[in-house]
Amino acid sequence: MYRLQLSCLFNIDVTNHFRKLHELLVVEEHKVTSKIKDMVQQSESTIDDIINEIKGINALFKPKCDSKIDMDNMDNLVTLITTCETIDQFINQSFTSERDVPITITDTELLTMTQQCIDRMNTTGYKSTKPHQLEVDDAALGEIKQLLRSCFDLIDMSHHDIDN
Fold first, then answer.
1. For burial by CB atoms within 10 Å, which of 74, 79, 128, 134 has the most?
2. Between these two residues, 30 and 127, which has the higher pLDDT value?
3. Domain membership flag for residue 133
């Protein structure tokens, strides 16, 4: 019975060692992925702000204009942005409007809206995220794997006196 209890304790001990290693790996993974998630969130927020500015500017000149942009599908939006060569091409592909709708705002209203738009653009301070790449030192990673394998060794205790 004593050997069975030792085996159970031994099993728990091994599990705890590997659990600690796993928790360390999860923490390190979180450090990398949280930075990536923050950069993606910042990029999405900037894209959203810029699209809203374009909508506002476009509404000045095309009052009855509907957006075809799906802000919930950021991948499609990024694809649309990267395939357009000019802002006009982006606007034509992203918005539908009735033709020959007269602009009903006065010059003063137009100037006020333009100033507000410029003020928003200047105070927002759009920050572009810089491209990043994950660099992995495969040689060091291989050494770490080997080192981990060598840290644990199962020893046959049948030749040892367990009671001592």
1. 74
2. 30
3. no
Q: Using CA atoms, how far apart are residues 106 and 112, in angstroms rounded to an integer? A: 10
Confirm whether 143 is domain-assigned.
no
Separation between Cα atoms, residue 78 and residue 84, nearest integer Å: 10
Range of the domain at 30: 2-125
Burial per residue of 72-108, b for 16 or more beta-carbon CB atoms within 10 angstroms, e otherwise: eeeeebeebeeeeeeeeebbeebbeeeeeeeeeeeee
Total count of domains within the chain? 1
Least confident residue range of 55-59, 60-64, 76-80, 116-120: 60-64
Distances (CA, A) of 20 to 72, 103, 141: 39, 67, 18
138-143 — which CB contacts under 8 Å span 24+ positions? Answer: none
Q: Are 5 and 163 in contact (CB under 8 A)?
A: no
Q: What is the mean pLDDT of the chain?
A: 79
